[in-house]
Design brief:
The protein is of the alpha/beta class. It contains 8 helices and 6 strands. Helix 5 crosses helix 6.
Length: 226
Amino acid sequence: MEQDFLSLEREIVECRRCPRLVEWRERVAREKVRRFKKETYWGRPVPSFGTPDSALVVIGLAPAAHGGNRTGRIFTGDRSGDWLYEALYAFGFANQPVSMSVDDGLQLRDCLITAVARCAPPNNKLLPEEIDNCRGYLARELRFANKKKVVVALGQVAFRCFLKIWRERAEFPAGVKFEFRHGGEWNIGSGLVLIASYHPSQQNTQTRRLTRPMFHLIFQRARELL
């Protein structure tokens, strides 16, 4: 199974399905920004991080233009990643609280991090057809992650995308309403729990819509469930 998963990740890295995203990710990698001018950007779709036999699966939105699109690792080298890995480390899902580059020694523990889309979108906004194009990759990853017990969806787009995938595979408990809210928790059958969280984007963190204590409670709860 691990080899099949790695084969899928290689397929993701070579993807060119969305012309708008291909053009943007490659332009950003060429033009760069001043603070990263001397760095070689990844400039391709970003694979997931972690192993498919993990109990915790975290789903984000997409790589940041100068984060994952630069470093080649999801949630690495940007402010959102700073928040995520700090929280994962605090509750034993990572061996260190920072993620700066692919060779920084970071290791995940019983955690797989993936995303709705694998290419950095302009203005951090995905088109519906781009989400549709990439959803199959996430669905296949979730099938490989057959030991998952908790899924944390970061933001409404990830929340809705996961539910759409899951509805195609399983029946939800009768009478359950899925309305996105920070800290929302649902038992969705097969021993799996879905937790919703605001995304740790700068838009949310700088306005204090999402605070560190709020975010840490999400992963504290995931650890309790596991």
